[in-house]
Amino acid sequence: MRADMSQPLAGGQRGVFLIEALVAILIFSLGVLGLVALGGSAVGAQSDAQYRTEASSLADAIAGEIAVNVNRQNNGANIAASLDAFNHRLGGGACVFTGTDTTNAQVQALIDRARNAGAVPGLPNATRFQQQIVVLNAPGDFNRVEITLCWKTANDNNVWRKHVLVTYVNGGQV
Description:
Layout: H1 16-69, H2 76-83, E1 91-93, E2 96-98, H3 105-113, E3 131-136, E4 144-151, E5 161-168
Antiparallel strand pairs: 1-2, 3-4, 4-5
C-alpha cells in the first residue's frame, strides 16, 4: 500500500478503472440485448399460441356443426349420405387443397371465418384453399371426419402451420 496518495500511480496502474468500467458496460449491454431477443421470442410464441387456439376453436366449431346437422333418421345410410355434403376441398395436399367447397352453409361460414376477414379473428394468410374437411364413411371408417386448418404467418417462410382434428359422427339421436 502506498502511504502517500498524492503521488501518481506507477505506469502499469494507469487506466485500469476505465477498462473495468468498459468491461462492465459491455456485460450490461449484452444482458440488455439478450432480454430484448427474449422479448421478441416471447411475442412470437404468444402469436403462435393465439393462432393455434383460434384454429382449435374453429375446428371444434366445424365438428359441432357437422354433428348437429347430420341426418340421423334411420341411421346408417342417411348418416353416410348426409356426411358427404360436408366434404370440403378433398384433393391436393401440403395445405394447398383442391376440389369443391362444402355445400353446407353453416360450415362454409366457419371456413370463411378462418380467412381472417375484417374484424373477425382468423388465421393469417388462410383462404378456403388452405382448409379441408374429409369425411370417410365407408364400412369400417365409422363416419370419420378429418378437419385440417392451415395458416402461415409473415415469418414462416413458405412453411404452412396446420391443426388437424379427427372426430367420429355416431348414429345416435342428438
